[in-house]
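Appendix B. One record, verbatim.
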Amino acid sequence: MFRTMSTVHLEQLDFKPVAAYFLAALVMYALVLLTQGLSRRSAVLAMASTFSNSVMIGVPLVGLAYGAPGLVIVFTLLSLHSMVMLTAGTLVLELAVAREMISEVSHPTAGNEAQARRPILRTVLVALRNSIIHPVAIPVIAGLLFAQTGWAVPEVVDKPLQWLGQAFGPMALMLVGATLSSTAVGSHLRGAVAVTLIKTLVYPLAVWLIATLLGLSGLPLVVIVVVAGLPIGANVFLFSQRYKVSQELVTASVVVSTALAMVTVPLVMVLVGGL
């Protein structure tokens, strides 16, 4: 990540694809909440419908299919992805928790409401901090800052970074398989398939539609649609575990979306590449 971004200057970056991607994510997130109601379950399902495995699968896939220009787009997206998606997800989940706490009180008072809502700001600020001080965001931002100095990475440093970058893709995909190999889908298969189809087919369609309306085309359009069509990211499971809601369904959805990605991702790549 650092090596790729270390040669990119700010004037070369195009934030329009990133804006289109997050606008589509916001629309999809809101639609799930509107149809399911504001609750911890709906908030986690909304995140499952919009949060892609963009590091472990997206980076090696885009690097292989679209090369360095595609990776620049992905890394620009990744520099904001955790901050936007995790912070928004945290905010909605905390609001849902506060709402549930208030509804459990027979006669809510201003004091009860204040007690329920007090942790929200602190939690969101912590989520924002953690999304910036993050192993994905730091090398992207550091590489971009380094590029602005005009210096070149010394070969003694550049070569090992290149070798590590070439090894990352196969290792990441192997770790995904190892993580999911012992996960049982069980009775949640039907629900997992439904979540998977929304995430891997409906969501990329929404990204394509909004990006097209904003005038996006070419490689930037292809890359953000492909990223939208990736399987569900593991952070969704961590959120479901933290808030103790729909853990089995989310785990099953991660497994099913990753397995079906062998079909859905090439389908999305072919369709968006032909448009």
